[in-house]
Design brief:
With 139 residues, the chain is α+β, with helices and mostly antiparallel strands. The protein contains three helices and five strands.
Length: 139
């Protein structure tokens, strides 16, 4: 189901709760909502659709633009700091923030098996933005 985009900054500033298998329908809604906004959006976190769970979805440039979903992602390593300017469907305008060229992420897949992967470039930037949402960070 395509959900409305949450713009309530007080809600977005709250840390998301860990996701569990019963949250798979939330991930499906997140995926469908991102697909709907794909022309102007490359990533979303569950709190952007009003659900305070630690779930992100993003367009993975390294996989030909396929949308990837992560449950309970955490950045475990990062390097190559740079200044970035980012927009967000939940917020008006663009904001400047510090990002990293390369990140390592530990997360769970749809079967809640732990995974670890390295991302670079724009895909890494998208993931950092969405994990910020999970952490209640509004840039």
């Amino acid at each position: 189901m395509i959900r409305d985009i949450c713009k309530d900054q007080a809600f977005l500033a709250q840390k998301a709760e860990p996701a569990a298998p019963e949250d798979l329908p939330v991930a499906a809604d997140l995926l469908e909502t991102l697909e709907h906004h794909k022309a102007g959006c490359v990533g979303m976190a569950a709190n952007m659709i009003g659900v305070p769970k630690r779930i992100i979805a993003f367009v993975d440039e390294d996989l030909g633009g396929r949308i990837t979903v992560m449950f309970n992602p955490h950045i475990t390593a990062q390097d190559g700091a740079y200044d970035a300017s980012e927009g967000c469907l939940s917020l008006n305008g663009e904001r400047h923030t510090l990002r990293y060229q390369r990140i390592e992420v530990t997360y769970e897949d749809r079967r809640f098996r732990e995974r670890h992967a390295t991302f670079t470039g724009f895909t890494a930037q998208i993931i950092q933005h969405e994990i910020d949402h999970c952490d209640g960070v509004i840039i």
